[in-house]
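Hey everyone, long-time lurker, first post.

I ran two proteins through the pipeline my lab uses and got sequence/structure pairs for each. Pasting them in order. The first:
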Amino acid sequence: MPTENPTPTEPTQNEAEVTAQTPSPTLTSETAPEGTEPTAEAGAEPKADEPKKDEPPVAEPLTAESITLPEGVTVDESAMTGFLDLMNNPDLSPQERAQKLIDLQLEYAAKASEASRQAYDTMRDEWATEVRNDPKIGGAALDANLGKISKIIDQYGTPELREVMDFTGAGDHPEVVRFLLNVSNRLSEGSPTPSASPTTPQTAEERAQRLYPSMAKK
């Protein structure tokens, strides 16, 4: 007995509504395999708050205002400029930057040493000028007074004392000269002067040149 093909039933109204509301899957919205992340759609823009992985963050340039120096310490403007240029140069490797920093330090250390030497020489010249122009020590009596001081050092001092006075410049200071001259005058009052050794210069001018070459007449 032939069977009749069942007549397909029409979907109910509720079934039709559910089917219409269900979105069709797309290539990018299909369910990702377990343990993987769904891929972004081609051409999609990254979110604004997501940093780009291939671009490192840009550091703010180093400035003189951002560096704290110890109280009372000042830095030469050209030295600071050279330091900042090295630190802010992105093309330098760590080794290159370290070497240039060492070279910069040595350069300005040499400049500081030379400036200190010049200041020392200037200070001694000023002291010697003050002694030469002093109305009681210098003038026409300068050579005789310096000769007295040299004789005192020969009698009571040592060669090392002369070296110290010359190295430190203390022998050029007006107060040191004045003190030694007062000692010489007190010791020579009312007492015979001991005879000088054969190696000691005999004239006041020679004594002055020996102890104070910077004050010798030119």
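...and the second, right after it:
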Amino acid sequence: MIIQLISATLHVLWCYIFVSCLELQLIGVAISNTLTALINLIAMTLYVTLFLPELKEGWFLPNKEAFVNLFEYLKVSVPTMLMMCFEWWSFEVQTYFASLISVDSTAAQVIILNSLYVIFCVTMGF
């Protein structure tokens, strides 16, 4: 929690530096997002390895044992991933077609789509 708070505070600083001071605009936003994610990764990894020795067993490099039964896992996971992708893409296509009708239709579709995203986040565990 503290790492996320520090990282979010630094993100505002990165955005100010890259977007306003250096005038990188959209590229600056991308750089600041990448920098924030990298800081999160490094800080969380250091925190777990240095201060939480009981969680150290969960952090390992993959070896041959990690790839045992990979094909059986992929037989289930790839169709599931494709089903979810097609579902999300169908919503995006509906938004595109709503944009061909009118601005009001697009606004209504975007509101409905964002409501569905929130509902899906709850049910998916995000």
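Reply from user beta_strand_b:
Welcome! Quick read of the second one: The chain has a mean pLDDT of 88. The CA atoms of residues 47 and 53 lie 10 Å apart.
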